[in-house]
Amino acid sequence: MKWFKRKNNEQPQLSLDEQRAEKLAELGAQLWASRQEKGLSLEEMVTLTKIPRRLLQAIEEGNLNDLPEPIYIQGLIRQFADALGFNGVEFASQFPVGFPVVNTSSATPTSPISMGLLRPIHLYLLYVFLIICSVSSLSHVLNNAAFRASNSEPKQNNQETVVNNQTNQSANSSTVPVSNRLATNTNDQPVQIGVTLKASSWIRVVADGKTEFEGVLPEGAHRVWKAQEQLTVKTTNAGGVLMSVNQQAPKQMGEFGKEEEIKIAAVKPES
Hints:
The chain is α+β, with helices and mostly antiparallel strands.
């Protein structure tokens, strides 16, 4: 009598989803190790692969639920591997996509034409073509999304910079120290001022509320203005401007490089 020994060490066959999860974890660990060895961050990999960060992270962590269809996953793995120096096609081929296999064996004879139509190589080539088209379309969509996101951020930053610059300019213009001194004309006549430039300076002269002059006068220039009620003289370089009131001895308006504004009002005789 013959005795047959039962094989207890046979492993149960994994389902296709379990095979994908197991292989994704293995490939993701290899990609993570290679990225760490090269000292590259996920943000740098996003730039190299044009793949969103969340998909790269899901591949490294073996998180199948956060990834698209298996066909797309294989394409993403290929791009990831290519960027790290692997043979992307060979590396990604380890991930099971799940091509249906056609059984050509039959109890009844089949014609050569039927055999040719059912050859697995034909189906394989068809699926490869579909994978290439799908991955290309997905990459194009992801690239466009990343491009729009990268363009919108600089525009927003530029708008914030313009607003900040305008705010700073407003703050600076409101805090410029100006003495706004008021000099008194001791005569009864309309007020008259004369300015002589020791150095090139910007000057603005307002006579009775009307701007008579605004601009830069060169060194050595001499100008005279009159008003019936009030003259206002403003300069950004007070040390370079000598000013005389009603032909009196000229005096320096202030310190060099300092902004100064002086108002001279005519004094009316008491009735």
